[in-house]
Amino acid sequence: MEPYKTVNHKEIFNGRIIKMNVDDIELPNGKIAQREVVLHHREGVAILPIDEDANVYLVRQYRHALQRFTLEIPAGVIENGEDPKDCAARELEEEIGFRAKNLKLLVSANNCVGVSNDKIYIYFAENLIKTEQKLDPEEFIEIKKYNIHKCVKMIERGEIYDSKTILAFYAYMLH
């Protein structure tokens, strides 16, 4: 099946992280429908770090879009030309101060496929080596350590609700 034909395109915003468009598309029945689209300038990575004692390292940070603090796995944006695995290694050290001897891709996924092209690569990190946290100037995060079974219970209770974090646990359990 061919993609639907765009009959009208309008860029309504172009920022540092995202671009927003409003497109009129022709449906298979010939009718025209409007679609609002969020295009991310770069892809992202997230890392599920688990130590030898089955502890998971999460970050607690303020998310303005939700106007609350969240518990999430470490994550970040892939720099231009950067390999996703290299980005995962960099973000792991920057956000929680660890390197991983083993870094394995668990899954890649598109978030919010109805309105966005946002893509994330989710890695599993094990055999962790303590280094030093190297936060960006605009990052204010707190590192939290929980047993993996407690994390699963926190997901069940809705205390962890970040989709990439939930997907990481699900993909890890499948492997």
Describe this structure in words.
- The protein is of the alpha+beta class and 175 residues long.
- It contains three helices and ten strands.
- The chain has helices at 84-96, 148-156, 163-174; strands spanning 5-14, 18-26, 32-40, 44-49, 55-63, 68-72, 75-77, 98-110, 119-130, 141-147.
- It has a four-stranded mixed sheet, sandwiched between helices. It has a three-stranded antiparallel sheet with strand order 1-2-3, with no helix packed on it. A three-stranded antiparallel sheet has the order 6-5-10.
- The longest helix is centred in the middle third of the chain and has 13 residues, at 84-96.
- It is elongated.
- The mean pLDDT is 97.
Low-confidence stretches: none
- End-to-end distance, in Å? 33 Å
Give the domain tally. Answer: 2
- What value does the Rg take, in angstroms? 18 Å
Strand order of the largest sheet: 7-4-9-8
CATH architectural label of the largest domain: Alpha-Beta Complex
N to C succession of SSEs: EEEEEEEHEEEHH
CATH class label of the largest domain: Alpha Beta
Count, helices: 3
Mean pLDDT over all positions: 97
